[in-house]
Design goal:
The protein has 3 domains: 30-107, no CATH class; 114-191; 205-281. Strands 1-2-3-4 form a 4-stranded antiparallel sheet. Strands 5-6-7-8 form a 4-stranded antiparallel sheet, covered by helices on one side. The chain is of the alpha+beta class. 51% of the residues lie in helices and 20% in strands. The radius of gyration is 34 Å and the shape is flat.
Length: 286
């Protein structure tokens, strides 16, 4: 057994020696040197970039401190940087951008409502902003008396929004957000449906809007099939007024082709103007 083991070790060492000789005979050293040089250059570039980013963040931090504190020495802090530097204005803009992002985050944390005291502290004016797809739209205001009881005195909320019902269902005497959060949901859903209808009219000239209402809770569209040139009616029913997507979609066509049924789920999960764009690209509508 010992002789066999010794032969096994010797044969292994012999194979290693052969491999070593073969590696030496192969011209791999120059390429390896080039590879290492490239790695060094990449690391040096990365190091310089990190140093520049660190210096940028330091300057932004200095500007943020002066902006947040609104000290009288704000100009002195800014003048410490090179006034002739092309990056000075960019750094100030970046500092202002980070400041606005922090303010927006804080605004979101407190519910996203602007509250202003009125009537010598006996009431507040609350603003509820609406937005869709990252764009701010209309703002609605409620004037609320807080003494002796919390009640809504004036507002410009559309009459088709069930404000009184939401107020009755809320616990606004102790927590005003139990009213504002559902109201914001209703208003933003309405704004979303309204914007989608606007985009349908602007982006899809071949699609005819046959019927719609003020609340944008019902929408009937008329499509044209490219090959057959036949008409198809699509009804979108938004029974849940807290959502901007329909709860029911129904198609009516002359041939009653089952191909339209598969689009129902798609239209219930996708904003209608985006769904129409996809359907047109796939050749289902003109």
């Amino acid at each position: 057994m010992e002789v066999a083991t010794t032969k096994g070790v010797l044969s292994h060492l012999s194979r290693l020696e052969v491999q070593k000789r073969s590696l030496k005979s192969q011209p791999q050293q120059p390429s390896r040197v080039k590879e290492l040089k490239a790695q060094v250059e990449a690391l040096l570039t990365q190091r310089n970039q990190l140093r520049a980013e660190i210096e940028t963040h330091k300057n932004i931090k200095k500007l943020r401190v002066s902006m947040d504190k609104q000290c009288t020495n704000e100009e002195e802090e800014e003048n410490r940087m090179d006034e002739d530097s092309e990056n000075s204005n960019l750094l100030r803009l970046m500092a202002r951008h980070t400041q606005l992002k922090d303010l927006l985050h804080s605004h979101h944390v407190i519910g996203g409502y602007n509250v202003v005291k009125i009537r010598q502290g006996k009431g507040v004016c609350v603003s509820v902003a609406t937005f869709y797809d990252g764009v701010y739209l209309d703002t609605y205001n409620l004037e609320i008396h807080v003494k002796p009881n919390v009640r809504i005195s004036r507002h410009n909320v559309p009459p088709f929004i069930p404000l009184n019902k939401l107020a009755e269902q809320s616990n606004m005497q102790t927590d005003l957000r139990t009213l504002l959060d559902p109201l914001s949901q209703h208003l933003n859903a309405f704004a979303g449906r309204q914007q989608q209808l606007k985009f349908v009219k602007e982006l899809h000239k071949s699609v005819e809007v046959m019927e719609s209402n003020v609340l944008c809770s019902l929408l009937v569209l008329k499509f044209t099939v490219p090959r057959e040139k036949t008409a198809v009616l699509c009804s979108l029913d938004y029974t849940d007024c807290t959502r901007s997507l329909p709860t029911r979609v129904h198609f009516e066509s002359e041939d009653e082709a089952p191909v339209w049924k598969k689009h129902c789920r798609f239209l219930m999960e996708t904003p209608v103007h985006k769904a129409l764009t996809t359907m047109r690209k796939m050749g289902y509508i003109v």
